[in-house]
Structures are given as structure tokens and as C-alpha cells.
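Here's what a typical entry looks like (Mobile element protein):
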Amino acid sequence: MGVRAPPVGSGTDGAGVGDGLRALRLRGGDGAPERTARGYRRFRCRDCGKQFNERSAGVLNRARYPSDVIALVVLWRLRYRLTLRDLAEMLLQRDMVFSHEAVRDWEAKLAPVLAGELRRRRRGKGGARGRHWHVDETYPEVRGRWAYLYRAVDRNGDLVDTLLSEHRDMAAARAFFRSAKAAAGLVPDRVTTDGHGSYPRAIRTTLGRRVAHRTSAYKNNGLEQDHRGIKGRIRCMRGFKSFASAERFCRSHDELRDFLRPRTRHNQHVPARRRRLLHLRRATAALAILEAA
């Protein structure tokens, strides 16, 4: 059948599915919703009669463990300086027995879903200050060689985009600016870079001739400090074994880090109580995205 389990609808017995299919929520003899052994609600397709549950056709459909546990593991994997084995050991204290390879598999499946949704949500929300971009590169290790992680933030310090490349050249710069324009949903008024030779032409051909290009020895200091986030996170990983895993992790980490960022501008003071509230609210939203994948 290939449908996702429907959300709770306006009726008591049925809910609409995105492609127009109607599903009937199954109920037991006592009137309570029928659930699987792991507690997921069960439904029956009104058209073909096939039964399915909340995780059917999802990324986690055949996973052994509850969706909320897997979502938490992936969130911790992206957010904190924990290795695959660290996470497996931590959940062992809760009688959850799985290998570090299971963590790797969950990350590979769920991290792109989270990154894509967070990227979609922030599109076009930069405002006036979002039209001034700061662009620089940092250097993660992939297969024993240095790669180039292009990163851009706006004047508020909010993420514009991230792109990993095996080369630092004109093609990579153009690909990055195309990706950044698509992610931001706008064309900047000004771009500040370190003056690498590929940037002027890439900016003209990708963003347009009206975009001002500024080179400065110190205007990108804030972005260079911001590189500490991804560099500190991957240090304990001792590099990546494949380009695909490096690209996936770097983008997902930056998207989540930006989403959980409590400040709305540089050097803003956010009281501890407010920081905790924002983190809890946003982490809960991120977990909901992962659980629904």
C-alpha cells in the first residue's frame, strides 16, 4: 500500500492521509484504539482493507526499538561530543541493548530527514540582516585527507548554508552559492570572504553582479570562531571514513546547532532560565521530526 500512518484527524474513527486515502482507526472491544505490541496505533485502509500502524512505510518501520528512543540517540549523536560506542553504552544503563553499528544506521537514515526539515523551516526568514553573508571554509578530515567545508552565516550569526567539497575551486564555490541561495530563499546584498581567487567570479555568476563582494582580514572573525562548533564535535570522531557520511553529518550537525541556538544576534545575553526553556522547546520539536520520519 505504501502509505504513511495518518495523523489524528477531526473525526474519532478516521483520519485523512496526504494522498487522499482514507484510513479507519481500529478499536478493541472496550472502545480503546487498537495498538501494536510496542504501543503504536493500528489502522485499516478504507480502500483495500490492509492494516498498518503509525510506523508503517516510515524510515523506522522495521526497527526493533521505540521511535522515541531512536530519535533521542540520533539527537544526542548530532548535538554532543559522543562516539557511536558512547551512545550504545549510555542506553545500556536503561536496558537498551544495541551495537554502535545500529547507531550509525539510525543516524544515516534520520539525520538527512532532520536536516531537510530544519532547512525548509528557516527558508526566507533571515530578514534584512540575513542579506549580509559571511563565507569561509574549515577543513574536516575525510579518508585521511583534508576536505573543504564551506560555511556561511548572516550578520546575526544564523546559519545560511553548509556544503562539503573535495576541492576548493571555482566549481565548488559556485555549487556552494547556488545551494546557499536555495537554502536562504533570497539573494544577499553583500558577501564577505577571505579573498580566495574563486569567490569574485562565483559570486558574480551565481548571485549576480549587484551583490557587493567584500574581502577583509578581520570581518570574518565571528565566522572563524563559529567553526569551533563543528570542529569540536568531529574531533572525537577522528575523521570520516566516507565523503557521503561526512557530508551528511556536517550538514545535519550545523542545521541542528543553528536550530537550538538561543541567541538571535551576536553577543546577545540570554538568561539561563530562558536558555533552558528555548532548548527544551526546540529539542522537543527536533525529536518530533525524528520520530515522525
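The chain has nine helices and eleven strands.

More examples are in the samples folder.
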